[in-house]
Amino acid sequence: MASTAISRRSVAAVSIGFAAALVLGGCSTSVASEPETTSAGSGIGSGITTTPAAQPNGDLAATSTALTRLAQIPIKGRAPKTGYDRALFGVAWTDDVDVEFGRNGCDTRNDILRRDLTDLTFKDGNNRCTVQTGTLDDPYTNTVISFTRGQDTSSAVQIDHVVALSDAWQKGAQQLDTQTRTNFANDPRNLLASDGPANQQKSDSDAASWLPPNKSYRCQYVTAQVEVKATYGLWVTQAEHDAIAGVLQDCGGTAPTQQPVATSAPIATSRPVMTSKPVVTSAPAPVSAPFKNCAAAKAAGAAPVRIGDPGYGPHLDGDGDGVACEK
Q: Which residue spans within the chain are E strands per DSSP?
């Protein structure tokens, strides 16, 4: 069942590229048969097709990799929600971000609708940004949902933050700067078009409190959460860690026999910041404010900086391997 669902979603992603030509031509009827056009600066229709970060159930390599990354994420208690406000993660669905689809002229919500829905039509004269209608093969409920834009109908399909903003705030995002939090809130790896009621039911729950009703999608769901939390230097609670590990192991993933970070980056033991402040290596506390750039990290004697280290930030980690400023 999961493999079939993923195939349909992969075909859907390719179909989005074909949607571009019709809207550029000023039409808003079905676009399935129109030729593909490209758009500079956009991952949609430009030969770059993204999907949510999760991997198909049954992909043993992917689930084992997720278990390895999970082992590197600090385990801490949930911090108070005090001070949380949606505005701290930037203007909702802003295009002014440094992640994929950023600054492509379309808001993030419509970017994700275009990526995840099929049979798309677009609003006339809107440069194919505004999705008017489409069909969602919902991964959370394993149902097919017809989407029609409108005051009373748009909520049938909502864009879920796979790692909820409130959950992120209580697990390290308080230490991130505003731009990084804005990137987090608009990162396609953390966004998924989903059934509206299911999204409302999830609210700001983590994996210990909520998992998709569609059990065949749970491996993909928690894999996405692991990638997002590792990328942005967030932590997990013990209950959340155990819930994610249980799902991944049920999918056939194998936990690492040792911490790969220690073997792949032994240079970390000689860094001045590590030797002069050994408490940093033993405390699973959230990361401090990230360095502004790698030059600042090197000036502080902290390079390379790994996920969980003080000063780490995803903007420093160009290849996304969890080790920043290594050169």
A: 118-122, 131-138, 143-148, 157-161, 191-195, 305-306, 323-324
Report whether 290 contacts 316 (CB < 8 A): yes
pLDDT digit string (tens) for the chain, length 327 residues: 433 333 334 333 333 333 333 333 333 333 333 322 223 232 322 222 344 444 444 488 889 999 999 999 999 999 999 999 999 999 999 999 999 999 999 999 999 999 999 999 999 877 889 999 999 999 999 999 999 999 999 999 999 999 999 999 999 999 999 999 999 999 999 999 999 999 999 999 999 999 999 999 999 999 999 999 999 999 999 999 999 999 999 998 776 654 444 333 433 333 433 333 433 333 334 445 787 788 887 778 777 777 767 777 777 777 666 677 876
Tell me the C-alpha distance between 260 and 249, whole Å: 18
Q: Is the pTM of this model over 0.70?
A: no
What are the residues whose beta carbons fall under 8 Å from the beta carbon of 102, sequence distance 6 or more?
A: 95, 96, 183, 186
Q: Alpha-carbon distance 62 to 267, whole Å?
A: 27
- In sequence order, what DSSP letters do the residues of 140-165 get, joined into one string? TTTEEEEEE-STTTGGGEEEEESS-H
In whole angstroms, what is the distance from residue 242 CA to residue 248 CA?
10
- List the structure tokens of 39: 């758009």
The CA distance from 327 to 310, in Å, is 18
Tell me the residue type at 100. Answer: E
Q: 221: closest CA among 208, 236, 211, 233?
A: 211
